[in-house]
Structure formats: structure tokens, C-alpha cells
Amino acid sequence: MDPLGYLVEWIAIYGIFGLFAIGLAERFLPALPSYGVLVAIGIAADDEVWSLHNAVIGTTVGSSIGALVLYLLVRAAGKKRTTALLYSVGGWVGLSRSRIDWTLSSLRERQSALTILSQLIPTVRLISPVAAGLLGTSTLRFVTGVSVGIVLWNGLFIAGGYLTVLAIPGMNSSALALKILVLLVATELFIALVWRLQRRYSMRPDLGASKR
Hints:
Elements: H1 3-13, H2 15-28, H3 34-46, H4 52-77, H5 79-92, H6 97-109, H7 111-117, H8 124-135, H9 139-167, H10 173-203, H11 207-211
Helix pairs in contact: 1-2, 1-3, 2-4, 3-9, 3-10, 4-8, 4-9, 5-8, 6-7, 6-8, 7-9
């Protein structure tokens, strides 16, 4: 069984529009594993269903437009309503209120860099357009940052699928996606642990200064 492989077969029917549509859909369907779909798209690129650069461009444009739509909806809806909705959606994708508050705080402090980096963190990347809208990030800064982040995210997994099938012909897309999920979860847990330790250390008084 290879459900992701079947999904890519459907995308292939519509060519570049299918790539655009799946990029757009992953912004509004949290249950859709974007990394898995991207890996499967990369695997299909080796079968000449589409070129590698077309796969990156098509999915990036779709995902970027989806992120922009979310950002503009937040700006139009207002802070109070959007914050309540953000907490609700966060619960659906496994994000606690404290994690959401941390994301908002981090984006507020370093908006340009973290708009890019937020697109490289699973689950956080889904709420970052909403967070940017809440914080009043300028449209130009948001579009630039999120587009760069999406190119990196999409390019990484599409290239990963492409290179994997070159090394292991006939690789099952869904099996590879599952292995990547384990790696992503482990990486995210490691990053969260490092961040908490760093934050705890930064909150401690300067022992050296106190001795003086």
C-alpha cells in the first residue's frame, strides 16, 4: 500500500496545476502531511512526471498564496477573534497555548528571520501566517520571509525524495514519509529541549556578576 503514491498519481493528471493545488491545500488541511506529499512528488520527478524545478515552483507558489490568504484573513478579522481561533486550531494540530504564545513572542522579537525559520518547523509553520497577521507584520516582509522559508522546506523534501529514489529505485513513498516523520519529531523535540535549556539558563542571575 502506498497512499501517497496514489495521491501523486492524481496530482500528475493535472500537471503544474495539480502541484499548485496541493501546495495550496496543505495550508488549509492540517491533516495533510506536507513533507510526505513533497517527498512523493520528488520521487515522481525521477519518473519524469514533472521536472524537479517545476515541482518546487508549483508547490511553493500554491503554499505561498495559501499563507498570504490566511495572513490577510487575520488582518481583516481582527486580533480578538483570530486569537481565539488560533488557540482552537492549535489544539487540533497538537500545539498547546504555551507553544502558540512562544511562537507569537519569538516572531514579535525577530520578525524577519523567524518568518523564514518558522516555515521549517512542523506544525509551527501552519500557524505562522496567522501569527504574523496578529503581530501586524508588514505584507512585504511577510511575503518575502514566508516565500523563502517555503522554498527551503519544499525544496528540501522534494530533493530528498528525488535523491532517495535514485539511490533506492522503487522506494515506497509512504514508507519513506513515515521514516522522515520520525526524524522530524525527534529533531523538533531536540530543538524544543535546547530552547528550554537556553531560556532557563538566560533567566538565571549572572553568578559571575553577583560574586563581584
